[in-house]
Amino acid sequence: MSVDGVNTNAVSSSFPWDSTTNSPQLMLALLEMKLAETNKASAMEGIKNIQDTNKEKELVAKLLNEARQSKADAKAKDTTTPMSKEMIQYMDSHKLAYDKTGNDYIHYSDEWDVAITSLQSRLDSLGADTQTKMVQINDYMGQYNSYLQGANSQISKANDALTTIVRG
């Protein structure tokens, strides 16, 4: 059974009721289930955001390694090495700094330092963002569990009241 988008099958199997009940305990249980579902949805959205951030972190780590290797290659050969198109596109789209000496994308060893610093800062920022999101998800899940426990408690109280009435 679903009431206002909340799946009530979990509780309906333990307590026979419908959405037209006037029981305050069951109405409170429905409210708590709705709040639990909202927190669960927020946690799931946060998890998706973390997954997206992790994909970006993988790309930034790859670009950072590429920049470090390009710096090492430029130093070893005492020449320039070019930025990849992927690196240029990522850095431009995220407004990350890189050396623009000569108005080109070809760098000597020491010119790579700007790009490496920018990519490292971006990677650190993404890591901090992930940690913040994890704290938020943990909070949402704690609230979810609390609301479910409250709903179960209200259903139990309603069940006890009905049992008392039936037994007289």
Protein described:
- The protein has four helices and four strands; from the N terminus they run ββααβαβα.
- The longest helix has 56 residues, at 112-167.
- Helix 2 (24-77) runs antiparallel to helix 4 (112-167).
- It has 168 residues and is mainly α.
- The chain has helices at 9-12, 24-77, 85-93, 112-167; strands at 2-3, 6-7, 81-82, 106-107.
- 73% of the residues lie in helices and 5% in strands.
- The protein has one domain.
- Residues 1-17 have low confidence and may be disordered.
- It is rod-shaped.
Mean of pLDDT = 87
Q: Report the end-to-end length measured between terminal Cα atoms.
A: 30 Å
Helix and strand element order: EEHHEHEH
Structural class estimated from helices and strands:
mainly alpha
**Low-pLDDT windows of residues:** 1-17
In quaternary terms, these chains amount to single chain
Gyration radius (Cα, Å) is 28 Å
Instruction: Based on Cα principal axes, name the global outline.
Output: rod-shaped
User: Count of DSSP E strands?
Assistant: 4
Largest sheet: 2 strands, antiparallel
Q: What is the number of helical segments per DSSP (H or I, 4+ residues)? A: 4
- Our estimate of the beta-strand percent is under 5%
Fraction of residues in H or I helices:
over 70%
Strand order of the largest sheet: 1-2
